[in-house]
């Protein structure tokens, strides 16, 4: 488990591959196809941080456990990244929630933003 308060750690390619449970060669394939990017470079050396290790483990699970090919992994990762951004947007504490009554009870929704309508303002009463 990664503790967000710890200083960031960086691993060389071979150590990152070992931590993720894949071979060095397979990690290079993932880099070539753009599924993962090193956190930083020093000369020609690539270094991977904890976030990249988590992503590599996710890629390995998608490939090994679900049998997805590289194209399927790319689409799935893109959707998962978008989902994480949406979750982060919805969890903004500065926006007071809007309570909506429905036939099945009440629902709490985040306050809509102008960006939710493509830049157009929401109608006001």
Give descriptors for this structure.
alpha+beta, globular, 125 residues, two-stranded antiparallel ribbon, 4 helices, 42% helix
What would you say about this model in short?
This protein is an alpha+beta fold and 125 residues long. The chain has helices at residues 13-20, 24-32, 50-64, 70-90, and strands at residues 10-12, 40-42, 45-49, 98-102, 105-109.
State the helicity in percent bands: 40-55%
Q: Provide the succession of SSEs.
A: EHHEEHHEE
Name the overall outline: globular
- The radius of gyration computed from the alpha-carbon positions, rounded to a whole number of angstroms, is 20 Å
How confident overall, as mean pLDDT?
Answer: 80
Number of strands: 5
- Flag low-confidence runs: none
């Amino acid at each position: 488990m990664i503790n967000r308060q710890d200083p960031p750690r960086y691993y060389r390619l071979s150590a990152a591959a070992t931590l993720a449970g894949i071979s060095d060669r397979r990690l290079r394939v993932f880099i070539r196809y753009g599924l993962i990017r090193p956190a930083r470079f020093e000369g020609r050396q690539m270094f991977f941080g904890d976030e990249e290790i988590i992503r590599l483990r996710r890629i390995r699970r998608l490939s090994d456990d679900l049998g997805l090919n590289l194209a399927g992994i790319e689409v799935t990762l893109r959707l998962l990244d978008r989902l994480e951004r949406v979750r982060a947007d919805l969890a903004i504490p500065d926006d007071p929630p809007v309570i909506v009554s429905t036939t099945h009870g009440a629902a709490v929704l985040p306050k809509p933003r102008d960006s939710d309508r493509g830049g157009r303002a929401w109608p006001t009463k």
